[in-house]
Amino acid sequence: MKREIIVLTLLALIIGFLFYDSMREAPSRMPVLYREPVKADSMPFDREEIRKFELLRDDTIVVAEKRKRGTFKIKSPIYGSVDKKVLGGVFDLFENIKIKKTIRQDGEELPVLLSEYGLDKPHIVWKFFNNSNREKTLLVGKKSKENDGFFVKWIDRSDILLLPSADYPRIDIDLKALRSKVVLRLHAEDLVRIRFKQFRFEKKGQKWYMTTPVTIVCDQKKMARFIRSIKNIEAEDFIKRELKIEKLYRKRGQENELTLMEMDKNGKKSRYNILFGKPVEGNLENTYIFIGKDGYIVKNELFERFGRSVTDFVDARLISYNKQDVNTLSIGNNEHSFTLQKVNDTWQVSGDLKVELKTELISKLVEHLTANSITDFVHYSENVAHDDGLVPVQFMVKVNNAITLAFGKIIDNAVYFLRDDYHNCIGKTKEDIMEYLSSDIAYYRTKQIFHVKDHGKVASFSITRKGKKVDAEKIDGQWYVVSPLKGKITQGVVDDLLDLFKELSVQGFVAENETVDYGFDVPLLTVTINHDGVKENLIVSALYDDQSYYGMMEQKGEILLIDADQVNRANKNLLKSVYVIEADSNNDGTMDTWTYFDNGKKTRMELDITDDGIPDSISNYIYDGQGEIQKIETDDNNDGTPDQITYYVAGNIVTEENDTDRNGSMDSWTYFKNGQQDKLEIDVSGNGIADMTKVYSVDSNGQIIGADVDQDNDGVVDYKEIYRDGKIIKQDIVHEPSQTESLPEEE
Predict the structure, then answer these.
(1) Can you give the pTM of this predicted structure?
(2) Which of 369, 363, 434, 439 is nearest to 402 (CA)?
(3) Within 13 A of 634's CA, how many CA atoms are on the CB side?
(4) Residue 34: predicted pLDDT
(5) Could you tell me if 655 and 669 are in contact, meaning their C-beta atoms sit under 8 angstroms apart?
């Protein structure tokens, strides 16, 4: 019996061993349970407790330890800092793995077969050690064929987890990816000295100063950007210590070095020296740099952000103000000076002199002073000051009673200057500044006499020439001469005049001398303009010289010099600009007479006799080549044929023809002598030949007092007429005419 029991027991053990062995050879037949996840897995301990970690890969082993400042430092195989973002991403993943499946070996009594998941020889191993040196290790196995992910397992947990394939690259990182790309971990607040190329910088208090090649305060914003550029240098790759070779270095010298010194609050100093190497062979966009024994490959463009000249580090403005903050300018030289003040956004001359200034010119000066207009700095010496035209000083400018600038003359399209707060340097700026500088206040004064900006705002104006005044006024949108007569003038004529008035400018200002007669009591010309509710009055008197006249704005009383050509153009007879005069001859409120002019000469007159608004009588004035009146043709019935023609010689009336019966033929001829009627001939028979003649006699005043009448035109006076006040009062028959005819009525 015992034998049988022993045999059965051995048989059972053999069968069990064979079954177990067959399961090892065919793991796919092993019962496995796939469960849907109910939660995300997490790290076994808090990341803040980690003091050390190791990353084991097929190609390398990385060991890193936490420093006092909380960052990790790589201790092996090289020295370097750990990239916080990369390590943070690893921690984030470990603390919150998004599990798709949890795979557990079915049957806890069976050993876990790590080899089936690639966990016996993992590709990646992460080891973490806390402050108590307690270890937590994560194994990363092979990729699952059935699921999109990799098998991973915390070594002290029974669960085998499935890491999504998308998250795998976050833990499959090499030394290059893990290492921080930041070359220097500077503390900007602790920096006290910087040496870069030929430049030396030193921090005093809270301000940075350049000490070489010139001594000057830095632009603090520019220095902050410079320091940020240094801090932001990131490596594209790293050079292992054993691979560093001397041929990668440039020759040592200030042009290829950057030296930094930090000093913490306890006075402890730290020094960093960066040596710029040669461009990377085969990739000229990158350069080698070295800090101590460590080498890096960085992009050249990172260094392009560094400054190349003094102006890249200091304030390149002539004055350290914004333009809206400049409110006082004192300008002058060794002989003359004056002060300009801004009051309510308007520039004025300080003191008793109340004059109008060129706001645009002063604004351009302020813009140049407050713009980045400095192009360079040079070290100061007396020889340099002489060579750069600073001796003698051309102009001195004091801004806001605080900063004083001394400008030299223009040399090679530039101007050198000194500033009272510069220690041993001379600045160089653009020559444009000289366009805005003068020691004569007149340079900044407005030269414009009238201030007409918009013609539409002009309501009226007048021109007085040698005591004869002509007034012009805009009425219902139309310009008229309103005195000494009323007539229309065109807008174009007015615009030309107003443009001319706008051009009137001051050539100079005259200091009044009581012994000089400026001639304002008998002015040559007076121009008055009413615009924008303001009346401006210019008086022009005698010639100052061939180029200018004396002038005065009546409101200001200051003696001016005005360009002679402009005065001569303004000295215009405005009456010659009238092109039509309208009149209401019968005072019924409707215009019935229109007289037209061309350059002051009457050319046409129209009369509305019937009061229907249509001209009934039209007279045309005809001139000879010399502009003298030659004749006047009048059409009294508006049929297109003259009914009266009056002839002139040398401006005097000599003959007047009339068609009294309006049949198209002249039948009356009046002859004049010295402007008075001398003889009248009448065609009574209508054959175009005079049948009757009157010869007038006048008194010493030119009044007609009588006439001898030849009624039949036979050369013999037939009767005499006696006139009083231009009317016939008596007729005396002297000789009976050959034919009895009634006396014609007086024309």
Answers:
(1) 0.61
(2) 369
(3) 17
(4) 41
(5) yes
